[in-house]
Amino acid sequence: MAAALSSQFHPTTYRSIKNVKTKQLVSCSMQQPSQSNIKVVINGAAKEIGRAAVVAVTKARGMEVAGAVDSHLVGEDIGMVCDMEEALEIPIINDLTMVLGSISQSKATGVVVDFTDPSTVYENVKQATAFGMNSVVYVPRIKLDTVTALSAFCEKASMGCLVAPTLSIGSILLQQAAISASFHYNNVEIVESRPTPTDFPSPDAIQIANNLSNLGQIYNREDISTDVLVRETQLNQSK
Fold it and tell me: Could you say which residues form the signal peptide (predicted)?
């Protein structure tokens, strides 16, 4: 752990027979900084991505899981739910306010990671903000109106809220690759293929299309009937 190095100047006087000389010596003292881990509340902890977030936080430096909120598996230890070797002694509860109040009383820095759904995310962020905590939101199919409302609310409250369209490293790299390649082509198609498509376009495809449209370049000039976002569904039929 890094330590803070502080310097204090102590004037020390040395007297000799012929004259008096005054020198300043520098004494250094090693002070261990008082650091406290960021308290992370996982809302939607019983979901697959919520369990992955719990494991990631427990392995990260400077963070610790302070609460697990979900309407499923209530009362079970989140460590055991995540198949960890040891229990975290953190039961899953379905009351977000109770967890936020406990962290607020400890005056610790906290953040809420929300994996719930579009119908509850706005109220969840409002609760977190009321207790002085920032939010990270990963809610698939969240509407643009909800994002706009969250932005206006957090700006008014002077609190931060990160709405992440995806938490996949592969998807982020794909988006960056699409942006880099788009400067070398005049036509762009975004093709999605899934075995059992349920909701097209996906949030990832929408984000890529928005990124490309914000570059200030017009694609597919030769064929104005071709949309920037092309949805292609491939269904594998078994013989």
Answer: none
